TrEMBL record:
Keywords in alphabetical order: ATP-binding, Ligase, Nucleotide-binding
A GO term, aspect molecular function: ATP binding
InterPro entries xref list: ATP-dep_AA_Ligase, ATP-grasp, ATP_grasp_subdomain_1
ATP-grasp domain ranges (all copies): 113-302
Organism expressing this protein natively: Aliarcobacter cryaerophilus
Protein name: ATP-grasp domain-containing protein
Amino acid sequence: MKLKKEKVLLIGTSFSAVPLLHYLKSLDYIVAVCGGLKDDPCHKYADESFFIDYSKRDELLQLCESEEFDYLVPSCNDYSYNSASYVATKLNKFYGFDKFEITNILHTKNGFRKFTIDNNLSVPQAIKYTIDLNLDILTLNYPLLVKPDDCFSGKGVTKVIENSGLKNAVEIARKNSKNNEVIIEEFVEGSLYSHSAFIQDGKILIDFFVDEFCTVYPYQVDSSCISYNLNEAVKNRIRKDIQRLISLLNISDGLLHTQFISDNTKVWLIETMRRCPGDLYGSLIKKSMNFNYSEFYCNSFLNRKNTLAELRMDTKYIARHTISTGRDLIFKSLKYDLESKKLDFYPLKESGQILKQAPYDKVGLVFYEFDTKEDLIKNTINMKDFFIVDNYDGIVNER
């Protein structure tokens, strides 16, 4: 008797989810996807498609109640993981998810700040905005960052130098928040990094540190590379804080991805997530280190153990860059001043399409291999200078 194939649902269908779909399709599963945009690439390659808005948790719950999915795999945005965690908690099934109350701590800025401050972890001082909060007598030190509680990619974030700009910044953040909540935190000086840690049996199995730069829009990463200058003392401080976070919350196996700021002495955890980072972050790790990030990410949701036994990593000096602009325009073409045979380009726009300003849109992603570590370190922060986005003359009309 032929055994019935197991069925996995990938939650999310954008280009960033394609590496996850590719790995899932390499296994002996029926692979379904869900997402509301019918032209998204994952719909074209999956075995089944469900056209739902998975950010509406009860829609995803209804789908999982009516279909016999053996596994859920969230893709590369907070909505996919949050909804999947909600469903897994409600149905008391599926692998690799924390309980939904833990997800609310890790995936909302207010929840994360309160937990980390209460437990003396290294974070900027912050306060949750409430309607009765007197903005004129805040105890925080300026400058401040005002952020939506539940948004990603730096949308709705404003730096405030003095009290007069605070009220407007709060309104901008609220408009960009689905739950209508805002966090106000102290601005800290330093360089931005990310830390991707794969957890197994309550410990960090393997991790990666990446330099991150925001060169077009100040709160969205557009250039990055494996970190070579971050000192070991800072790395170990981050590992210590992350290991403590894992233990305090009893975090399940899988990825814990964190952004942090460091001046190469002090560190401040900024935000953390359990879903796969977007903009082909995993491809940066794979191209740079020959490490299958998608495999390690997906395995925890598939009830598969990761192993380092046969891991054979090597090093290439790869920079990742998201091409975007500081204003709305009509995209015409892309020009670049880099050797083409070392350039991988993933286009996301066609000529004649409207390109919205960062952080709301992008032309595409590029990966470029430099010859030396020194060239990589010197040029990653300047990647935007190698690309010119040519546009058609005219006014971009909102419709």
